[in-house]
Design a protein that fits this description.
17 strands, six-stranded mixed β-sheet
Length: about 525
């Protein structure tokens, strides 16, 4: 039986998968190759880059017009700044792939006398020249994991590619595709040899185009899941397919991981006459996050980088970017796949799963230290008592915010993260929290959904930092929270006001109040709101 793949390249004989070449703009790529262009194909980790490259290699070789060679140079990463070691690893990879694919009758001619005659600063260009001369057809080289190289090793690799660029196609590859997470234009490489940061110029100007591998569409997800249905008879309900699309936003690894969890790990899902439901997708999503799967753990590790913090923190607080925020930071975090940019220029966290992973990872240590139990906040009718919960959080925030914020890397987002950590510790396992982030909105919205007696309790919580007077902050918050309440159809609303001024005593910061917002022309209904000061 085939299965949904979550590790390594796709093998169509083993895995449910979409036609790999469909994910590439094959006409554009063939056109660039025919024009003898060198270009970049980039996408976040585990989106199918390697699988698509190998499919492209087979396509080009089957066409009869080219000799296409795929190489993966990740092994050279271990050499770091050791150029000799890195280039030697790349040359070995080229030789092994040529031999494995039987591209030449005698691959030993490629390396004969190579290291005796040439240094590490010319050996790579030499072996590519020899390969191009020995091939009866123009050579197309696909270099995978190019951005795993470091410093002078990466600089030397790029410069050797450019060195013989003018000799193509008779004496050098007609076209080279560099594949990695990042676009080369965004590289900032520190050269130990030259004691400077290489940001452009001769090492980079071989690149003619930059192509990005996209996510699955909603119809792609349906097609992928239907392959399982056709093989096993197990149905995915329409609502379940939508939920997979909603939680993943089409990120390929997340789609396959959710489907694998649903059909091959969950006991209900292993029973093939059990249809996959929306509720099962929610459970599968929670399991992926709780297990800190490798893909999610890698993204969480990136949150520790300062340039990532400069982008993510303003999104968590819904404020504007820091003045020291650079466009390079934004492009870097987009390339990582943590955020996406809409055609109108707005940016947001890439999908609801990442929206949950980010605050959970940033507050993991403090979540582990929260000893309160969810049963303390559940009423007799099964509803969660949010007033009791937020009252408890007021005391928790008073006791813990000072010490935790002192050591938190995401200091500005600290209050938002503390509240989410507290809620997550209580809600986890019984309900779920949906988060609304938006740059420049001036607040963060949380929607708590708690199932009880075959119903769902919907509670919205809005967090605002007090930048002006308390009255102005409350006034603005009431308008925003009531508009959001009307949008999601919540049962109750809570506005949390965080006062971060150092000199104000806690007795003045801590308060609880009830307000009934009388509405606006677009929201004419009365809107009761509980306000919590901290």
């Amino acid at each position: 039986m085939k299965f949904f793949n979550t590790a390594g390249p796709v093998n169509p004989s083993d895995h449910y998968c979409l036609p790999l070449l469909i994910r590439l703009d094959i006409n554009e790529i063939v056109s660039l190759i025919s024009q003898k262009k060198y270009f970049v194909l980039h996408a976040p980790r585990q989106t199918g880059k390697t699988s698509c490259l190998k499919a492209l290699m087979n396509y080009l070789n089957d066409s009869g017009d080219y000799t296409c060679l795929y190489i993966n140079i990740e092994s050279a990463q271990a050499a770091r700044e050791n150029v000799a070691g890195g280039i030697h690893a790349i040359v070995d990879e080229i030789y092994d792939r040529v031999a494995d694919n039987r591209i030449l009758s005698d691959p030993n001619n490629l390396i004969e006398g190579l290291w005796e005659q040439y240094s590490e600063y010319s050996a790579l260009s030499t072996i590519l020249s020899r390969l191009s001369q020995a091939s009866e057809k123009p050579v197309v080289l696909l270099i995978d994991e190019i951005d795993t190289l470091v410093g002078d090793t990466l600089i030397s690799t790029l410069r050797q590619i450019r060195k013989s660029y003018d000799k193509r196609p008779e004496l050098f590859p007609q076209s080279i595709i560099l594949c990695g997470v990042r676009d080369i234009r965004d590289y900032r490489i520190h050269s130990d040899r030259e004691k400077s940061v290489i940001t452009g110029g001769s090492a980079f100007n071989v690149k003619a185009e930059s192509l990005r591998l996209g996510n699955f569409t909603e119809s792609d997800i349906t097609e992928l899941c239907l392959q399982h249905t056709k093989e096993t008879g197990q149905r995915f309900l329409k609502e379940a397919l939508w939920a997979i699309w909603y939680f993943s936003a089409g990120q390929p690894w997340l789609v396959n991981a959710l489907a694998y969890e649903l059909c091959f790990r969950m006991e209900d899902g292993k029973v093939r006459n059990t249809p996959i439901s929306e509720e099962m997708v929610s459970i599968a999503k929670e399991r992926l996050i709780s297990r800190r799967e490798t893909h999610l753990d890698h993204l969480a590790d990136k949150l520790k980088e300062e340039r990532v913090r400069r982008v993510i923190e303003p999104m968590l607080t819904s404020t504007i970017f820091e003045q020291k925020f650079q466009r390079d930071d934004l492009e870097y975090v987009i390339d990582l796949g943590l955020i996406t940019r809409e055609p109108n220029g707005s940016v947001h966290i890439a999908n609801p799963i990442y929206q949950e992973v980010i605050p959970r990872e940033l507050t993991w240590t403090i979540q582990a230290g929260i000893s309160v139990q969810s049963s303390w906040f559940i009423a007799d009718d099964g509803r969660i008592d949010m007033r009791k919960l937020l009252s408890s959080f007021q005391q928790f925030y008073r006791e813990n915010s000072g010490s935790w914020l002192e050591i938190a890397q995401y200091h500005e987002a600290g209050p938002h993260l503390l509240l989410q950590a507290f809620l997550q510790r209580i809600i986890n396992g019984g309900g779920r929290i949906e988060r609304e982030y938006g740059l420049g909105r001036g607040r963060t919205d949380l929607l708590v959904m708690w199932p009880y007696k075959q119903k769902v309790q919907r509670i919205i919580i809005e967090i605002k930092i007090m930048h002006h007077s308390r009255n102005i902050t409350i006034r603005d918050g009431l308008v925003q929270i009531c508009r959001y309440r009307d949008h999601v159809g919540a049962d109750e609303s809570h506005l949390v006001i965080i006062d971060r001024t150092i000199d104000t005593p806690w007795e003045q910061k801590i308060f609880e109040a009830e307000e009934i917002y009388e509405g606006t022309p677009d929201i004419p209904v009365l809107c009761p709101v509980t306000i919590w000061g901290m």
